[in-house]
Design a protein that fits this description.
This protein is mainly beta. The chain has twelve helices and 46 strands. The chain has a 22-stranded antiparallel β-barrel. Strands 30, 31, 34, 35, 36 and 37 form a six-stranded mixed sheet that branches.
Length: 893
């Protein structure tokens, strides 16, 4: 019997747990028998009710080990990023980011924080460095047996975050012997080389199994200078003078104005060699400028390496009871490089050069008439501290995951209970950062010579720089229990139910060094935050076979959070099979996303928020239309609550023939009470009635209080006489909606070619019909939001040989300058289609050799000349590796 017929049989029994399919399941092994009751029961993603294998193929996407191997990817994150359900792309390791070692996945384009990641059915910890999504980079690819993707809301089963869908990583458990694997990937372009290796050992007896392994995968750094689309950056933070403008009430009493216009030097610092070390000149006369190429040393993609050890074991105690344990220890190391520190942010808005400073142009060249005219008035400097070295970030992140439990039967009730402990700790060290409060006086008194910064002594240079430090920790402790049992007989069979309870404690902290937290470090910033919460949950799921061909599934879950409140998420699903070859399904449910601990645990953090406020400007002695900075405190808003979602879906699976299967599914998701950040300008607009996009709880804060006052929530305090802003309390609040709907189509074929082997094909198409934020109109087709994504897989197997050809397609979008005047660039960007091929040989000595090429045509990413990131293309949606040739060898002992 073919695998496809096995799939056909499974689909005819599919619709459990409110899982509304968005993609066809790949062939899932199902043992056929006339008496399904004798089959082993399993739990499938999206359901807590165990079913016989023949009934247990949920309409989810199942990515098996063979598909992972055939992709040529070296990490789980790399594979999932290229799938169709990652609609608008997702966060990936990037140099210069505070989360450069992390990778996320964003189902339906709803964000990584609205996509729930499970490991063996249990919630993965939130990445310590982000505090708001789960890091896929921590999962060792060698430990993965398969990946199940439920592209439908599942808060009724799993609780918070399962709005966009669920990704369940199923780890290997049943393996005998030993397996060694090693591979390398070599891009034709500089940087991004990959290496992977693993060793797995497994043994089993009639009562127990154990599997242990070690794995490593690594991708090297990619520098901006090594890609034509990202090389050649232009920054005005180089070495240029700017006029000063009176600004009473500001740090120096002045603020930066326009740049100097010397008749021959323009704004350049006289005597500085602006032709080396990344500096370059443009223009002539008053238009002469000294600029800096920030891509000279900076990297696009950070180096990331995963080292993991893992062990899985279970033991059958007696006929009714067994015990199990899983343990994983993962170490992620990452290195990123950013350009030397610019003088931004900088106290006062720029480097202040007093009139008597040796670095003032009138004192550098007093004989010059233009500079002599500036004598007695200060100037400002935009500077790049190239002489102090690059900003290098090194991250070491360790993850510990331990779980143990028991499964058994009490009377006629199946039970599963256990405990789990996970910890993710990341240490982030940044070298080459400038302490602005130390550098400012050294520049003002001339100790740091801006005409020859590369000639400054080592002692002076070292006295200005610091190594920043950040320690982030997530600890999650969990106990759980579930009981499953039959209820009663119905027309279509036996009704069944599962009830369960969970207790989880989440502890998160993100602590910056004191200099960074105080805002003293230029080129780096961060505010410490920490929080702890308890989550208690109870849930149920019931399956009612109303007729032989009609099933009803009802589920609900109640979660009580110690820090903000509680939520209840219900779901109902229906499966109807009018024909043996046709299954119709529908579901309706509600979900939620709890505010993350980085939001509710934010400690009051001082800042200077920019705003155009007439009363404040006038009080400072400036024109009413000026832009100024006011004291602000970012706080944890005590009024914040969870996001709420409503979802429904309908779909059909049709086994057209014994070689063709087709599924078509429609989904609709609406999110309310979206968590959004509100700054001082937003709050002022709400309080004066000029904006209707206002959260609840915003108020006029008392002027006679010493800030911050977090208990008072978001708001603005004004001087009762002048009405100038004294301080503001800014932060997150619930406001806004997201609405999206779309269609998923799948077609799978399998042909027996007789003496010529077999051929398998699969086509997945994801279409986002509409995506609106706050009712502002559909964004699909705009920059970064393609309407279509499609993958096609083709595999021909002939004896010990297999050839795989994968095609990946991303639809075209508008460019980032589509709404701007025509600058001579295209208003739309083309689609992106890449081809991957692999040749595999199963050697007679238990070896398997795979040689492949990803992106055979060496296609560039879709370039956007006005991309705001400086990378030249949408970094979350495409990759810039180009053609990658790889080789993998696996040997089984």
């Amino acid at each position: 019997m073919s695998n496809f017929n096995q799939l056909s049989g499974a689909i005819r029994f599919a619709l459990l747990a409110g899982a509304a399919s968005t993609f066809a399941a790949v062939p899932v092994v199902a043992q056929e028998s006339e008496d399904a009751a004798t089959l082993e029961t399993i739990e499938v993603t999206g359901s807590r009710i165990k079913r016989a294998d023949i009934e247990g193929a949920l309409p989810v996407t199942v990515i098996d080990r063979a598909q992972l191997d055939a992709s040529g990817e070296v990490s789980v994150a790399d594979y999932l990023r290229n799938t169709t359900f990652n609609s608008f792309g997702s966060f990936r390791p990037q140099s210069g980011s505070s989360a450069q070692a992390n990778a996320g996945i964003s189902l339906r384009g709803l964000g990584s924080g609205r996509t729930l990641l499970l490991i063996d059915g249990r919630r993965a910890p939130v990445a310590a460095a982000t505090g708001n999504f789960q890091d896929i980079n921590t999962i060792p690819l060698a430990a993965v047996e398969r990946i199940e993707v439920l592209s439908d809301g599942a808060s009724a089963i799993y609780g918070s975050d399962a709005i966009g869908g669920v990704i369940n990583i199923i780890t290997r458990k049943d393996f005998n012997g030993a397996e060694f694997s090693y591979g390398r990937g070599m891009p034709t372009r500089e940087g991004g080389d990959t290496e992977n290796a693993s060793m797995i050992f497994g043994a089993s007896s009639d009562r127990g199994r154990v599997l242990a392994g070690v794995s490593m995968n690594e991708r090297e750094i990619v520098f901006q200078r090594d890609r034509e689309w990202s090389a050649g950056g232009i920054s005005s933070f180089s070495n240029e003078y700017y006029f000063s403008v009176a600004a009473p009430g500001s740090l120096y009493g002045f603020r930066p104005g326009s740049r100097l216009l010397h008749p021959t030097l323009g704004s350049k610092v006289p005597g500085f060699d602006c032709t080396t070390n990344g500096f370059f000149e443009i223009g002539t006369g008053t238009g002469s400028r000294c600029l800096y190429d920030f891509t000279f040393v900076a990297a696009d993609e950070a180096q990331v390496k995963n080292l993991s050890t893992f062990i899985r074991a279970d033991y059958q105690i007696n006929d009714d009871w067994s015990t199990y344990m899983n343990a994983t220890v993962t170490r992620i190391t990452s290195f990123g490089r950013y350009a030397p520190v610019p003088s931004s942010p900088w106290p006062g808005g720029g480097i202040f050069i007093p009139a008597d400073s040796p670095n003032h142009p009138a004192n550098i060249n007093p004989a010059d008439p233009y500079y002599a005219a500036l004598a007695g008035q200060p100037v400002f400097l935009r500077h790049r501290f190239g002489a102090l070295g690059n900003r290098d970030t090194s991250i070491n992140a360790n993850t510990y995951d331990f779980m143990a439990g028991f499964q058994g039967r009490i009377g006629k009730v199946d039970v599963d209970f256990g405990a789990r402990y996970t910890e993710n700790k990341a240490i982030d060290l940044g070298r080459g950062y400038v302490v602005a409060t130390l550098a400012a006086p050294l520049i003002a008194d001339g100790t740091y010579d801006i005409t020859n910064p590369f000639g400054v002594s080592t002692d002076v240079a070292n006295s200005m720089i610091t190594t920043t430090a950040r320690e982030s920790t997530t600890i999650q402790t969990e106990v759980y229990g579930i009981a499953s049992f039959d209820l009663f007989e119905m027309t279509g069979g036996t009704a069944s139910m599962a009830v369960g309870a969970e207790y989880r404690q989440e502890d998160w902290s993100d602590v910056y060094d004191s200099l960074s937290a105080s805002g003293s470090v230029s080129g780096s910033a961060g505010n410490s935050a920490f929080g702890i919460r308890d989550v208690k949950a109870v849930y149920f799921e019931a399956l009612f076979p109303l007729l032989d061909n009609l099933e009803l599934n009802v589920a609900g879950r109640f979660d009580d959070y110690s820090d903000y409140g509680n939520d209840f998420a219900p779901k109902v699903a229906l499966r109807w099979q009018p024909l043996d070859s046709l299954t119709l399904r529908a579901s309706y449910g509600q979900g939620f996303r709890a505010p993350t601990l980085d939001i509710v645990g934010q400690q009051p953090a001082f800042g200077a928020d920019g705003i155009a406020d007439p009363a404040t400007c006038i009080a400072f002695g400036a024109p009413a239309g000026c832009s100024t900075q006011v004291t602000s405190y970012t706080i944890a808003n005590p009024n914040v609550t969870s996001e709420q979602s409503t979802q429904f879906s309908v779909g059909a699976a049709w086994d057209a023939t014994d070689w063709l299967n087709i599924t078509l599914d429609y989904y609709n998701i609406e999110i309310e009470d979206q968590l959004s950040f509100f700054d001082t300008a937003d709050l002022v607009a709400c309080l004066n009635g000029s904006s209707t996009v206002c959260p609840s709880g915003v108020s006029v804060l008392p002027a006679n209080q010493v800030p911050p006052q977090p208990a008072l929530g978001l708001g603005v305090a004004r001087d009762p006489v002048t009405q100038a802003i004294l301080y503001s309390q800014i932060g997150y609040a619930n406001l806004g909606t997201i609405e999206t709907d779309g269609i998923d189509f799948n077609a799978r074929t399998q042909f027996d070619l007789g003496a010529w082997g077999s051929l398998r094909n699969g086509l997945q198409i994801a279409y986002v019909r509409n995506y609106e934020v706050n009712g502002a109109g559909d964004v699909t087709g705009t920059v970064g939001a393609p309407e279509f994504r499609a993958n096609m897989t083709n595999q021909w197997t002939f004896g010990d040989f297999a050839v795989t050809w994968n095609i990946n397609h991303i639809d075209g979008t508008e460019s980032s300058q589509a709404s701007l005047p025509d600058y001579g660039y295209a208003l739309t960007l083309p689609s992106w289609t890449t081809h991957d091929v692999q040749f595999t040989w199963n050697a007679p000595w238990n070896g398997r050799l795979s040689v492949g090429v990803n992106n055979v045509a060496d296609k560039d990413p879709v370039l956007d000349p006005l991309d705001g990131s400086g990378r030249g293309y949408n970094f979350n949606l495409y990759d810039g590796y180009g053609r990658v040739t790889y080789i993998n060898y696996t040997h089984t002992f």
